[in-house]
Amino acid sequence: SADLDAVFDALHSAKVPTAWLKTYPSVKPLGAWTRDLLQRIDQLSKWIADTYPRVFWLSGFTYPTGFLTAVLQTTARKNSVPIDTLSFEFSIINLDEKEILSPPKEGVYVKGVFLEGAGWDFEGGCLTEPEPMELIVPMPIILFRPVENKKKSQKGVYICPLYLYPVRTGTRERPSFMIHVDLRSGAADADHWIMRGTALLLSLAS
């Protein structure tokens, strides 16, 4: 059939067949996409066989926004508060995943996030100028903690957009933008990083 021919032609060219991309948005080539798919299956399989992960790979969900909404719902029910009064507060966790022995009391630890358009000062816990030819850097683990009636971001904080993948516009059916994450802006002010187009990504093109 024409559909099978299209799949064969894509595989022969080391591209992801268009029909497969309906599952979740990605711009990875076939090899990287396949590894990514296997990692997604592995995370869910371990979750089913064992228990909740201590650290969640947010990129591994087909609908990460749905997962984050579920985190808010869990906290709302636990504390008997309306979900619309909750929003996320963000903390950088400078620990390796192996060093985290238990989940947080509130919220979730998130790994696998990348920073584009800036560098990250691990010691200072803030944005910094990237090294030469350094376009993207991995971020430390981030704690997404639901809080009630969150205060407005203070001075010295960059409200950083988080996108599903490098195509920031996404598609009409599936926007790429997810949420804003508060990051300390470091020596530069927030406007500097806005002009740089600094953003967080859940997935890369490779």
Total helix count? 4
Percent strand: 25-35%
Main sheet: which strands, in order across?
A: 7-4-11-9-10
Return the string of H and E elements: HHEHEEEEEEEEEHE
Descriptive overview:
The chain is α+β, with helices and mostly antiparallel strands. Helices cover 26% and strands 26% of the residues. It is built from 4 helices and 11 strands; from the N terminus they run H-H-E-H-E-E-E-E-E-E-E-E-E-H-E. The chain has helices at residues 2-12, 30-49, 64-79, 190-196, and strands at 55-57, 86-93, 108-111, 114-116, 119-121, 126-128, 136-138, 141-148, 157-163, 177-184, 199-201. The strands form 3 sheets. It has a 5-stranded mixed β-sheet with strand order 7-4-11-9-10, with helices on one face. Strands 1-3-8-2 form a 4-stranded mixed β-sheet. The model has no long low-confidence stretch (mean pLDDT 91).
